[in-house]
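User: Can you model how erythose-4-phosphate sits in this protein?
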Amino acid sequence: MKFFVDTADVPAIAELNDLGMVDGVTTNPSLIMKSGRDIIEVTKEICDLVDGPVSAEVVATEADAMIAEGRKLAQIAENICIKVPLTWDGLKACKVLSDEGNQLNVTLCFSANQALLAAKAGATFISPFIGRLDDINLDGLELIEDIRTIYDNYGFETEILAASIRTANHMKECALIGADVATAPPNVIKAMANHILTDKGLDAFLKDWEKTGQKIL
Ligand code: E4P
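Assistant: Here's the modeled complex, given as structure tokens:
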């Protein structure tokens, strides 16, 4: 499973990128707002840092305007992936922009039917939002499973980019289901390294080591 980082925080992306943990980046208007940076400037910086696709989201709601914004975003760098919302207009923009050779991430997906439409419209990635479904007592992971089955049934090449990931457990479940990509905030990716038994075990080893009076260096 590929790891994308869901943030516009450049130092946080750089830290994970140095560890080989970053296969791409996703941003959205809220994350750009949080960064306090200009969208073009910060997105360019991220694209220069990371080899994989960097999603930058359009904010227009009508297809022609989305297409114009998408074309502008695509000029930022070769690895830009244009992100459009899963609306009827977003699907129209997806079709036109993907036919022009761009990578497209269709976002705000909350149903298997929406994912089916995005694949038909030529999306490179579909972004089903797990956490926001869980927030309203629906099963976000079940949606990932459904989309996996449908895409496999018909050999769609659109990649499932599990999004709105809130916990390390979401990452494990997405990997088990077979999501192609998971995008998560840096703190969730880091939390995957945590285990109480690792901490306890290390503590015990270090206490015993102290008793030996030895040094390695
Ligand atoms: C994905 O591309 C979105 O930017 C993101 O995963 C949304 O996550 P949230 O529901 O935690 O805001």
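A couple of observations from the model: The longest helix spans residues 196-212. The mean pLDDT is 98.
User: Helpful, thanks.
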